[in-house]
Design brief:
The protein has 76 residues and is of the alpha+beta class. The chain has a single domain, classed as Signal recognition particle alu RNA binding heterodimer, srp9/1, CATH 3.30.720. Helix content is 16%, strand content 36%. 11% of the residues are buried.
Length: 76
């Protein structure tokens, strides 16, 4: 069993592009509210599998509801 972290973000598409550019992940299932990022191992020409999922903040489904609140001018 491999861990598959779920990261809540405000912009799934922008976050997906960042992970793809910086960490060389590939889109496994993309959309406006949810994305699965996978890694292809070029040395053995195989897909390692899903590494992380990205979901929009506040979207309900898959047993996840995220509420974010903060005080001050900048979110943490």
């Amino acid at each position: 069993m491999n861990p598959q972290p779920l990261i809540a973000v405000s912009d799934v598409r922008a976050s997906s592009r960042w992970y793809q550019a910086v960490l060389n992940f590939k889109s496994g299932h993309g959309g406006a509210d949810y994305e699965q990022l996978i890694f292809n191992d070029q040395s053995c020409s195989s897909t390692v599998g899903m590494l992380i999922s990205i979901r929009t903040l506040g979207v309900r489904g898959h047993g996840l509801t995220v509420t974010v609140s903060y005080s001050g001018s900048k979110p943490i």
